[in-house]
């Protein structure tokens, strides 16, 4: 699993809760995050280099625990790893979109996400086939910065939440998708501002169900008689800072975090081989 930083830990938590015998190898790309403001081609390149690394380390399934990366790279990832190397790829956009479609009563669904995810229109595409659903999107870049600093409650978060969420509230949405895996870390203030009548939809639990389904279908579930699972959490940036937040957001499964290094280009953006196909016009269906 990977994310630009600590956000994907919200998905990792659900995976560990639903699949307690599985072993997680998680990379937080904190040296290159946030992904949200980056060009989509850069996010794609960063994501592919991480997934290359994970697949080379022998993972049996990949989870793109990041909406921005899911929007940027899902089609390529399925081609490169699922078709190319037999490794299923699970993402976080369709699980959240299908939950929102089930939950909404008035058909007015709000989306808060990174600039990259909003601009990709991946959620618009995912919800396009659902009759009567209208999407109201708002980019909330400062939420990621706050979560990465460990600031998840207090006046600063509340001020930012009130500012970002005002247009979404004014649109009369009755359901709000937290379309960035960092945002569940700020669920208290977001829910406070939206009010208790607006359910907040996150992708973590539904994504974990997709992980279960994909492993079960391929008969790849790790049995309860297997040795105690050993998880491995890595970051591309400062491992100490990452481990403090990872223990707080995920829990005691995070032991010592080691830094993971990649070869990088002069711009600091890692380069991956050029045998990847061009960006898709729309996202493909979920697993
Ligand atoms: N947590 C990520 C997402 O779901 C990325 C946030 C960022 O790096 O901007 O989009």
The strand line-up of the biggest sheet is 1-2-9-10
Total number of distinct structural domains: 2
Instruction: Report the sheet with the most strands, covering strand number, pairing sense and barrel closure.
Output: 4 strands, parallel
Q: Spell the H/E element sequence.
A: EHEHEHEHEHHEHHEHEHEHE
The CATH topology of the largest domain turns out to be Rossmann fold
Would you identify the regions where 5 or more consecutive residues have pLDDT less than 50? 273-287
Pathway: Cell wall biogenesis; peptidoglycan biosynthesis
EC number: 5.1.1.3
Function: Provides the (R)-glutamate required for cell wall biosynthesis.
Binding site for substrate: 3-4, 35-36, 67-68, 181-182
Describe this structure in words.
This protein has 287 residues and is of the alpha/beta class. The chain has two domains: 2-92 and 205-259, Rossmann fold (3-Layer(aba) Sandwich), CATH 3.40.50.1860; 93-203, Rossmann fold. It contains eleven helices and ten strands. The chain starts with a strand and ends in a 28-residue tail after the last strand. β3 (62-63), α3 (67-85) and β4 (89-90) form a beta-alpha-beta unit. It has a four-stranded parallel β-sheet with strand order 1-2-9-10, with helices on both faces. Strands 6-5-7-8 form a four-stranded parallel β-sheet. Bound molecules: D-glutamic acid. D-glutamic acid (DGL) is lined by residues 3-4, 7, 33-36, 66-68, 114, 117, 144, 180-182.
């Amino acid at each position: 699993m990977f994310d630009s930083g600590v956000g994907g830990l919200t998905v990792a938590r659900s995976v560990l809760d639903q699949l307690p015998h599985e072993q997680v190898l998680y990379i937080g790309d904190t040296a290159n995050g946030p992904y949200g403001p980056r060009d989509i081609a850069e996010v794609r390149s960063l994501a592919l280099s991480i997934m290359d690394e994970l697949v080379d380390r022998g993972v049996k399934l990949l989870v793109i625990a990041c909406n921005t990366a899911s929007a940027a790279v899902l089609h390529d990832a399925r081609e490169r790893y699922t078709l190319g190397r037999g490794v299923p790829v699970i993402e976080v956009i369709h699980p959240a979109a299908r939950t929102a479609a089930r939950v909404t009563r008035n058909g007015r669904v709000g989306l808060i996400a990174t600039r990259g995810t909003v601009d990709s229109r991946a959620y618009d595409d995912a919800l396009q086939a659902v009759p009567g659903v209208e999407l109201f999107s708002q980019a909330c870049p400062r939420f990621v910065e706050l979560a990465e600093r460990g600031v998840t409650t207090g006046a600063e978060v509340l001020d930012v939440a009130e500012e970002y969420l005002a247009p979404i509230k004014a649109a009369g949405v009755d359901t709000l998708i937290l379309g960035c895996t960092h945002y569940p870390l700020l669920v208290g203030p977001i829910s406070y501002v939206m009010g208790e009548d607006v359910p907040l939809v996150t992708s973590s639990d539904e994504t974990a169900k997709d992980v279960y389904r994909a492993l079960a279908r391929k008969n790849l579930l790790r049995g309860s008689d297997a040795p105690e699972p050993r998880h491995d959490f890595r970051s591309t940036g400062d491992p100490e800072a990452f481990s403090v937040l990872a223990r707080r957001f995920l829990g005691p499964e995070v032991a010592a975090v080691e830094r993971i290094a990649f070869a990088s280009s002069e711009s600091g953006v890692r380069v991956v081989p050029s045998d990847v196909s061009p960006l898709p016009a729309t996202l493909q269906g979920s697993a």
